[in-house]
Design a protein that fits this description.
Helices cover 38% and strands 15% of the residues. By secondary structure, the protein is α/β, with parallel strands linked by helices. The model has no long low-confidence stretch (mean pLDDT 90).
Length: 177
């Protein structure tokens, strides 16, 4: 896997800029693009909200443009600012959002918990032993729900990465941000 992560803070790239990127990636033998712009509010701050029909159309065009250039489009979501790992409502919202993007033709996904507080809320701490356990539990549930697609996981904490490996499904790729 070799490619580009659009995961920075600031103004996200335009659709035309992304399409040009896919073309350059193909010429450079890169095969993976991760859609994760921090300032896309529905990727991070408003992650529970589904995309509108207009937004769906834009994402579908990007997925199709990436595929046309033999680039895997990885849709990433970053719910860590306010997710409750122990509530059915939040897990259902994650599933609904990922399923929406899957229906647009996306076959690869990422769940990102970087740049967040590693401490669990009291309600989550009553259910999970650690952040590693909570994040891995949600990751595994989404991975199974989506029928085991290509799946990437970025956990919280620069020095805790190895602790996640004992909890995450063996076919989920764990990477550090």
């Amino acid at each position: 896997m070799c490619g580009v992560v659009e995961g920075f803070y600031g103004r996200p790239w335009t659709c035309d800029q992304r399409k040009e990127l896919f073309s350059r990636m193909r010429r450079s033998n890169m095969n993976t693009y991760i859609y994760a712009p921090k300032d896309d509010v529905k990727h991070r701050a408003l992650w529970r909200q589904l995309y509108t029909k207009q937004e769906e159309t834009k994402i579908k065009h990007l997925i199709d443009a990436a595929h046309a250039e033999d680039v895997t489009f990885v849709y990433a979501i970053s719910p860590g600012l306010d997710i409750s790992f122990s509530t059915t409502a939040d897990i259902t919202a994650l599933k609904r959002k990922m399923k929406q993007v899957a229906k647009l033709g996306c076959k690869a996904f990422a769940l990102l918990f970087d740049d967040i507080n590693p401490l669990l809320k009291p309600s989550d701490a009553a259910v999970f032993k650690s952040s590693a356990h909570a994040q891995a539990s949600v990751t595994n549930e989404l991975y199974s729900y989506l029928k085991e697609p290509k799946f990437l996981f970025c956990p919280t904490g620069k020095y805790l990465k190895l602790s996640y490996l004992i909890f995450v499904h063996c076919n989920v790729f764990v990477f550090c941000c």
